[in-house]
């Protein structure tokens, strides 16, 4: 049985409000407990939902100076390229709230995917040593306070796609792919062990196009699809001792019968 908390909203706008309320809550809790908040962002519509954090009351209540921002995955393109998750996040959020630039961990866009992945992993290992990012006792993985995921219609999360070898990595924290079915082809991405070591994982999914994948992941079956539920990367997101919350709009949840 796929474990998680499933929150269903009338529409995308209410989903976005529910998501930013949750992010603000986790941020406050993390800052209170440890003095800072480590959050990792995925790309896509998730980032546009976060735009609400620039509005009242979040822009005043969130302790922005305590945020440390990471990327769950990033496309291997220049930071000012239209496909860059960093560019999107900067436009939507990072340029509008007082986050310290040095707390936004940017990925090197001047090197190959392989080098960018190993550099990012090296930086993470340093940050775990200094406890800027917590560490998971069970597997020494970085333990982010919050990992934010979107999901594709094929059940992919981050840049981990169905049947891809990257899903089986156990020791790497960051890997790279050059054959992403979702363009652009070159990406670097957290591996599943890092995602499942987080204190909190949130998956934000909207739209009817994803309703079959949502049902396969959460209910574990779906008569309209030939996909194998177990193969879907999103179904492998089961934090070992963290909390998992799904934020769905009615359309994405329209085929569910178990929540
Ligand atoms: C990326 C993302 C990817 C994304 C999903 C959902 O960089 O492409 O990390 O995993 O979150 O594809 O994207 P949408 O919400 O825009 O459909």
Walk me through the structure.
There is one protein chain. This protein has 259 residues and is α/β, with parallel strands linked by helices. It is 27% helix and 18% strand. The strands form three sheets. It has a six-stranded parallel β-sheet with strand order 1-11-10-7-2-3, with helices on one face. The longest helix is centred in the first third of the chain and has 23 residues, at 12-34. Residues 42-46, 73, 85, 150-152, 156-158, 182 line the site of 6-phosphogluconic acid (6PG). Pathway: Carbohydrate degradation; pentose phosphate pathway; D-ribulose 5-phosphate from D-glucose 6-phosphate (oxidative stage): step 2/3. InterPro entries: 6-phosphogluconolactonase_DevB (IPR005900), 6PGL (IPR039104), Glc/Gal-6P_isomerase (IPR006148), NagB/RpiA_transferase-like (IPR037171). It is an enzyme of class 3 (hydrolase). Residues 12-246 form the Glucosamine/galactosamine-6-phosphate isomerase domain. Its EC number is 3.1.1.31.
Task: Summarize it.
The protein has 259 residues and is α/β, with parallel strands linked by helices.
Number of helices: 7
Which consecutive residue ranges, at least 5 long each, have pLDDT under 50?
A: none
Which ions, cofactors or small ligands are bound in this entry? Answer: 6-phosphogluconic acid
- Name the average pLDDT: 96
The gross shape turns out to be: globular
Structural class: alpha/beta
What is the helix fraction of residues, given as a range? Answer: 25-40%
N- and C-termini, Cα separation? 12 Å
Strand order of the largest sheet: 1-11-10-7-2-3
Query: What is the β-strand count?
Result: 11
> For the CA atoms, what is the radius of gyration?
17 Å
Order of helices and strands: EHEHHEEHHEEEEEHEHE
Summarize the biggest pleated sheet: 6 strands, parallel
Assess the beta-strand content as a share of residues.
Answer: 15-25%
Family: Belongs to the glucosamine/galactosamine-6-phosphate isomerase family. 6-phosphogluconolactonase subfamily.
GO cellular component, one term: cytoplasm
Protein name: Probable 6-phosphogluconolactonase
Keywords: Hydrolase
